[in-house]
Write a structure and sequence with these properties.
- This protein is of the alpha/beta class and about 325 residues long.
- The protein folds into 2 domains: about 5-145 and about 265-310, Rossmann fold, CATH 3.40.50.450; about 145-260, Rossmann fold (3-Layer(aba) Sandwich), CATH 3.40.50.
- The protein is about 40% helix and about 20% strand.
- It contains 11 helices and 11 strands.
- The strands form 2 sheets. Strands 3-2-1-4-5-10-11 form a 7-stranded mixed β-sheet, with helices on both faces.
- Strand 4 (about 100-105), helix 4 and strand 5 (about 125-130) form a beta-alpha-beta unit.
- The N and C termini lie far apart (about 65 Å).
- The structure holds adenosine-5'-triphosphate (ATP).
- Adenosine-5'-triphosphate binds near residues 76 and 107.
């Protein structure tokens, strides 16, 4: 006979992303709706090990939907990677009578949840929260849409100054392994070139493209570079390379950095977080575990956590083609 769920825990883990707060709010209110207790776990797995908990009711999450970051704080925990650390975590959950756990985070956080489930048969459900959009089984992760808008807004501003001075700007955006932010924000902000980890366009091709842009009358250019791009050069080396080969351009570099993770979540991320939080609670009440909530074709879907972690993502070739045509 499946266990009756009376109390659940919710945590945010790994890198924070806009929309995590909206997801916490959704989980808390869905708990109230279904008459179960909700406990907030501070600082991800580290707070879990330390028993850093707070009971959360519907009014505790008032005014939260529009806030960036996460009210529960996030952390990376070395201790949770050890058996001894996970044993402490399990003891804390038993002591606080928490029957199941919702983990809002990225693939590392889901891997931790799966390891924990395997050792203790403890029910875990994942909500994908990361700006990188690099999780298999969902077309959108929480925070990605907001980060795209933040990056587009920043590049728009950079373009204003670039076009006033005949400058070429290299703009580095987040994405060590995935070029989703670079590709989409690059197209959205009208970048001339977009360098991503999934495709090696080659330095020569980039130069040719910039030279062609110059000949066709462009006075300024923006090149968007994902952190993990394949040219083998970092953004400053890329700038130096172009400056040497195209002395007619004044080249500048802008690294957007952590501002991409911040800010009030977009309406899309708020709605997504609200839908995912409700689904996560319904899965737990259905005695499900090791699943990640996702969104595909605007329907809330469910993927095995293992697939979410191991599945490989393809870059959208159509976007690369559109970007090429737009840079004419
Ligand atoms: P981001 O998108 O920012 O990378 P993430 O969830 O992938 O988010 P990680 O730092 O990779 O972030 O993982 C978060 C935490 O999950 C780790 O600090 C660790 O406590 C736990 N974790 C990750 N992998 C494992 C593992 N193999 N075993 C146990 N715990 C793990």
């Amino acid at each position: 006979m499946p266990k009756k769920i009376k109390k659940i825990g919710v945590m945010t883990s790994g890198g924070d992303s806009p929309g995590m707060n909206a997801a916490i709010r959704s989980v808390v209110r869905a708990c109230t709706y279904y008459r179960i207790d909700c406990i907030g776990i501070y600082r991800g797995y580290q707070g879990l090990i330390e028993g850093d908990f707070i009971p959360l009711g519907p009014r505790d999450v008032s005014g939260l939907i529009n806030k960036g970051g996460t009210m529960l704080k996030s952390a990376r925990s070395k201790e949770f990677r050890t058996k001894a650390g996970r044993k402490k975590a399990h003891e804390q959950l038993v002591k606080a009578e928490i029957d199941a756990m919702i983990v809002i985070g990225g693939d590392g956080s889901f891997t931790g949840a799966m390891v924990f489930n395997k050792e203790y048969k403890y029910p875990v459900i994942g909500i994908p929260g990361t700006i990188d959009n690099d999780i298999f089984g969902t077309q959108f992760t929480l925070g990605y849409d907001t980060a795209l808008n933040t990056v587009v807004d920043a590049i728009d501003k950079i373009r204003d100054t670039a076009s006033s001075h005949n400058r070429l700007f290299f703009v580095e955006v987040m994405g060590r392994d995935a070029g989703f932010i670079a590709l989409n924000a690059g197209i959205g902000a009208g970048a001339e070139e977009i360098l991503i980890p999934e495709e090696d366009l080659g330095l020569d091709r980039m130069l040719q493209s910039l030279q062609r842009s110059k000949r066709s009358g462009k006075s300024s250019s923006i090149v968007v570079v994902a952190e993990g791009d394949k040219t083998g050069k970092n953004v400053f080396e890329l700038a130096e390379y172009v400056e040497q080969n195209m002395p007619e351009y004044e080249v500048r570099v802008s690294v957007l950095g952590h501002m991409q993770r911040g800010g009030s979540p977009s309406c899309f991320d708020r709605v997504l977080a609200s839908r995912m939080g409700v689904k996560a609670i319904e899965l737990i009440l259905d005695n499900k575990s090791n699943l990640m909530v996702g969104i595909n074709d605007n329907l809330i879907t469910v993927t095995e956590m293992e697939k979410a972690v191991k599945g490989s993502l393809d870059v959208n070739k159509e976007l690369i083609r559109v970007s090429d045509i737009m840079s004419i």
